[in-house]
């Protein structure tokens, strides 16, 4: 059996009881380590699970899946992923490859940023399409995400923006020369994300992400223990003005609020507002939310 096991969002204890039983009973256990990260090192997972973990980077998962699936038709093999298994298309792809080989598969679900984002007080059924924001370079600044955000805004829906991470990435020079030299890990911050959003708005001029009229909620280390998780709400302009340390350690996520705001959403997120008066004023005057 080939298992894909969700690990949740925080540390070694977030695995489900069912997931832990599967891990303990597996002949080999792989840890997918590039679509997201946990807040603890691999060694802590190994100590808690009582199993050696084989790190599976992008190359292994995408081009060497035969090795991961080896003997999975006769013994249990597990692939561990941060969050929920269906949070990335990569995991869907390897499940399809296993099925094409006649290997039985099973998924063990867990919490992911897609549902834990509700910790900021926004109602999950008021979210639209989720988008990803990648690191801009001098020559590459993709802005197709803007259209998805606009579609959500036009429907009054919130937008979860997943911020880029770079793990085991190669520079263009090393990639061109075929050198297996990797850059240090990088995680996009709220400050960089909001700066890029402002740059795209300045270019598009569509009014979708106007900095002083767009409410947003910044979140970091969602699901973490007390003191780890951070929530900061305000206009995009207010978030951009905050010192980086306000947002805590990575991983960071950002939510752009939709215009179909419920007063309970506004009141809940107000707890985390940079300036409560500005938060309520923009919610009332720009978003048309009737506050009690």
Automatic annotation (TrEMBL):
Gene Ontology terms for molecular function: diphthine methyl ester synthase activity
Gene Ontology BP, a term: methylation
Pathway stated in the Swiss-Prot or TrEMBL entry: Protein modification; peptidyl-diphthamide biosynthesis
Binding, S-adenosyl-L-methionine: 9, 84, 87, 112-113, 163, 222, 252
InterPro entries: 4pyrrol_Mease (IPR000878), 4pyrrol_Methylase_sf (IPR035996), 4pyrrole_Mease_sub1 (IPR014777), 4pyrrole_Mease_sub2 (IPR014776), Dphthn_synthase (IPR004551)
EC id: 2.1.1.314
Assigned keywords, A-Z: Methylation, Methyltransferase, S-adenosyl-L-methionine, Transferase
Domain Tetrapyrrole methylase per the UniProt entry, residue ranges: 1-239
Enzymatic reactions: 2-[(3S)-amino-3-carboxypropyl]-L-histidyl-[translation elongation factor 2] + 4 S-adenosyl-L-methionine = diphthine methyl ester-[translation elongation factor 2] + 4 S-adenosyl-L-homocysteine + 3 H(+)
PANTHER family registered for this protein in UniProt: DIPHTHINE METHYL ESTER SYNTHASE, DIPHTHINE SYNTHASE
Family statement drawn from the similarity comment of this UniProt entry: In the N-terminal section; belongs to the precorrin methyltransferase family. Belongs to the diphthine synthase family.
Protein task: S-adenosyl-L-methionine-dependent methyltransferase that catalyzes four methylations of the modified target histidine residue in translation elongation factor 2 (EF-2), to form an intermediate called diphthine methyl ester. The four successive methylation reactions represent the second step of diphthamide biosynthesis.
Protein name (Swiss-Prot/TrEMBL): diphthine methyl ester synthase
Organism encoding this protein: Ceriporiopsis subvermispora (strain B)
UniProt lineage: Eukaryota, Fungi, Dikarya, Basidiomycota, Agaricomycotina
């Amino acid at each position: 059996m080939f298992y894909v096991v969700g690990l949740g969002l925080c540390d070694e204890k977030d695995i489900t009881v069912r997931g832990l039983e599967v891990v303990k009973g597996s002949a080999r256990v792989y840890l997918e380590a590039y679509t997201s990260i946990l807040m603890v090192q691999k060694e802590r997972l190994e100590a808690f699970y009582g199993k050696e973990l084989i790190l599976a980077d992008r190359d292994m998962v995408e081009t060497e899946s035969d090795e991961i699936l080896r003997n999975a038709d006769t013994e249990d093999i597990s692939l561990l992923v941060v969050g929920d298994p269906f949070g990335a298309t990569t995991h869907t792809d390897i499940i399809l490859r296993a099925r094409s080989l006649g290997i039985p598969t099973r998924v063990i679900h867990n919490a992911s940023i897609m549902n834990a984002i509700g910790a900021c007080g926004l109602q999950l059924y008021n979210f639209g399409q989720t988008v990803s924001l990648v690191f801009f370079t001098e020559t590459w600044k993709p802005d197709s995400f803007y259209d998805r955000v606009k579609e959500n805004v036009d429907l009054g829906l919130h937008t979860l923006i997943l911020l880029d991470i770079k793990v085991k990435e190669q520079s263009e020079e090393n990639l061109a020369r075929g050198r297996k030299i990797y850059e240090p890990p990088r995680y996009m911050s709220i400050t960089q994300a909001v700066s890029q959003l402002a740059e795209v708005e300045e270019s598009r001029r569509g009014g979708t992400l106007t900095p002083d009229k767009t409410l947003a909620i910044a979140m970091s280390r969602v699901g973490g223990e007390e003191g780890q998780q951070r929530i900061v709400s305000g206009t995009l302009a207010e978030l951009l003005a905050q010192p980086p340390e306000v947002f805590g350690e990575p991983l960071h996520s950002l939510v752009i609020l939709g215009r179909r705001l419920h007063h309970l959403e506004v009141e809940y997120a107000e707890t985390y507002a940079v300036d409560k008066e500005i938060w309520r004023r923009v919610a009332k005057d720009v978003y048309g939310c009737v506050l009690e």
